[in-house]
Fold this protein.
Amino acid sequence: MTAETLTAAEAAGAMAERRLSSVELVAACLDRIERRDGTVRAWLSVDREGALAAARQMDAERAAGRVRGPLHGMPFGVKDVIDVAGQPGTHNSPLHLSRVPVDDAGCVALMRAGGAIPLGKTDTAEFAAAGGRNAATRNPHDPGRTPGGSSAGSGAAVADLHVPLAFGTQTGGSMMRPAAYCGVYALKPTWGEVSREGAKLYAASLDTIGWYGRSVADLSLVAGVLGIETAAAPRPLAGLRIAVCRTPYADKVSADGHAALDRAVRALEAAGATVVARELPASLNALNDAKETIMRGEGRAAFLPHARVYGDRFSDGLRRQAEGPGVITRPALKAALDYGAHARLVFESHYRDVDAVLCPGATGEADRGLESSGSSILSSLWTVLHVPVVGIPAGEGSGGLPLGVQLVGFRFADGALLAAAEAVAAVVDPWAGRVRVPG
Amino acid sequence: MTAETLTAAEAAGAMAERRLSSVELVAACLDRIERRDGTVRAWLSVDREGALAAARQMDAERAAGRVRGPLHGMPFGVKDVIDVAGQPGTHNSPLHLSRVPVDDAGCVALMRAGGAIPLGKTDTAEFAAAGGRNAATRNPHDPGRTPGGSSAGSGAAVADLHVPLAFGTQTGGSMMRPAAYCGVYALKPTWGEVSREGAKLYAASLDTIGWYGRSVADLSLVAGVLGIETAAAPRPLAGLRIAVCRTPYADKVSADGHAALDRAVRALEAAGATVVARELPASLNALNDAKETIMRGEGRAAFLPHARVYGDRFSDGLRRQAEGPGVITRPALKAALDYGAHARLVFESHYRDVDAVLCPGATGEADRGLESSGSSILSSLWTVLHVPVVGIPAGEGSGGLPLGVQLVGFRFADGALLAAAEAVAAVVDPWAGRVRVPG
């Protein structure tokens, strides 16, 4: 067992017990990247020397009895729409190839203050937005398939054992789709729980920082460092009430995707959880339309500066969101924002007697080819609702590619969701506690 | 008449007709700053050489027949929580004295693309937040009094004829109070209309970029450059229906403040407008409480990175918002966010038959001393409602200091509000069309 195969929680434990140094862990990650990233292409830049220097510093501090936090010495990846001071911040845009920001994003600052080490910047759809160019990243389990997007590099890097943890963002389904397609864990916290400062703006009322790990414990470690209240122990499955919701978009889910959800339900019931079938009320059937309207409508304000500064050099697809044709009208944006606010209350009332809601992780296995990163439709509805979501691997489909489920919680109760997710993952993820080595 | 006394609209007209060059205008502003800023202390940094170089460039372009937009060659000030690439970006924090960002904020990028010239950075409450240190800026009309805050330097700079236009931000009442106290015009647009990228994060669902000018026409020129739909002509007062609302906080308004509102109402009626008295429904009496909860609750996420990175070196008041004691709980934040969303619908329904709502600009004249920048209570409620607000000067109080009124519109109808405000200002502001030279 080599260090790069450890989960973040395992590696943190090994470092705390001095069985592993930060330099050994960072070096193992760099070696794995060296061997694999020609195929996977998860990274836009790797700060090899900076990360090793930081690892030496963290090891020296630990030897001197100073431990900054539970992730002291832990390397992590950062989607290249989230700034790391002194590292390239290109947004995967040809307009920003030489951009180097001076500030850490809020999440990066908290991780560094806790002793973690930013290893480099991961590939992303241009500006993490719909309409720009795609990431070059490939699915680690089949380089002929997409890893999902827009947090493509972060999801693939964690799945391919390049780094135990990585940050992404979600405006529609950009955290959860790579989690499902690559077979890793992800948390999209409640909107507003984590500072979005230093992440490229797309849609102000949707954009959310999230992160990938290889277990729910990994997700919880980051949550704690970022100031989210986490529970001390997992919830026992007996006594847990879970609603299954196939969403208004169930007809877009493949037979594989439904089968994975069915398996999860049977496993939960067998382990003593109470599972009830309960779809969203019909009044929430327009959530995905609302996401499209808010994303493109708020994207108008976000991308107008780029359109005016760069003109024809700016991505056509993004320029159209800012200046048309087809720009979202102000009355349409207002109506969608109000619909979203109302839907939050309807959702909470509708599911007030359950602990969490379980739904498919994506429409199915990752698509062939890299042209499309797949559909966000199974995740966008939760983004509009501002609720926390944990992505959990749930076996493989007929093509041998990962499938996932999403466990959805309630606003500002992220810790309770993580506690439930830890119990759920133990019976739903057939790889739980085992190492899966792609390639 | 010297160039620094012109409104932005007048200066733009003079430059378009080649009666004034950008170099002449910028030089006149720099001279005024040189003469007055020792007293007023509006600026944290002035980019003298950069602004003159840009002015020469804009004059050369105009001479060659290239005009980038209606503000081609126009200098403007920028509150020092909004980034200008290559200029200091200190947030008025001792932690960031040497910070120089690499990106223009969205609003600055749009202004530069339109040919306008960032003259320098204006003083602000630390991080534009409640709890940090205050700006050193003084009221141009009485240096023994506060100019209001947190956009202190921007409001004072425009009032004292240092620059025709300046950007600020509002999370509670940070745009509108300096407008009222200093006797200048201000627009806080609809939340989400203008990109907030590049402005320091405080409360994600409240923070709004706004700007100061010396006429409604000035505000509209900037609105147009920032992509807000503006009306071609002012609304005639005859036919305009305006509701007067003294707000649930009317008891905090001085006799002077009420008298200014009374004068405004009489002037509007005399000019043919229909004015109706209509207070907010009682269910909206908690709007200011909601603002406090949202501001400090969202401020927890915004300032946690600073608290963890800088520890004891970070402002005590801001650190308490992030880490307590007295930190806002998550259930309280959620309840306040939901209350705000509901209040937006109640407001629109309650005033659906009027064109705008008129209320006091602040609690009264600027307070003596610089320790406090005054109360935001007359503005915070509108910030929670996300509605656009125009600050309009409305004469003087018993102390000879300016008083203001606020004209409040409806979400995503900023252009309609500006059209109404232009007509209202013509009869409400006794200085309309005349130059007021402080000092």
